């Protein structure tokens, strides 16, 4: 069955960096776009970034553009989110999501992981 396991969350200072990883299994990873989303305390799920199946195209929410970088390693069935210049408002539970197509701009997802907590605080 499809499994998405996020890791790499933790506590970071404002201006700091974290790298999230999502290990995928149970499907042909290289055939699907992957995405990251976040859920801040008391708020709904918010899309953060997506990457096409072959890694050629990436997409970002305006709130993270220029600070976060999504990438993937299809040989390792893993998608990453490099988070730089972190802000307190980035504090959230971050989820990895499997797309329903190979296209990164199609924001349709059918599986997601359990999430990894990111807390940005001094």
Describe the protein:
The protein is mainly beta. It is 0% helix and 50% strand. It is built from no helices and eleven strands. It has strands at 3-7, 10-12, 18-25, 34-39, 45-51, 58-60, 68-73, 78-83, 92-99, 109-112, 116-120. Strands 2, 4, 5, 6, 9, 10 and 11 form a seven-stranded mixed β-sheet that branches. A four-stranded antiparallel β-sheet has the order 1-3-8-7, with no helix packed on it. The protein is globular and about 40 Å long. The mean pLDDT is 97.
Topology:
Layout: E1 3-7, E2 10-12, E3 18-25, E4 34-39, E5 45-51, E6 58-60, E7 68-73, E8 78-83, E9 92-99, E10 109-112, E11 116-120
Parallel strand pairs: 2-11
Antiparallel strand pairs: 1-3, 3-8, 4-5, 4-9, 5-6, 7-8, 9-10, 9-11
Question: What labels describe this entry?
Answer:
4-stranded antiparallel sheet; single chain; globular; 122 residues; 0% helix; mainly beta; 7-stranded mixed sheet; 11 strands
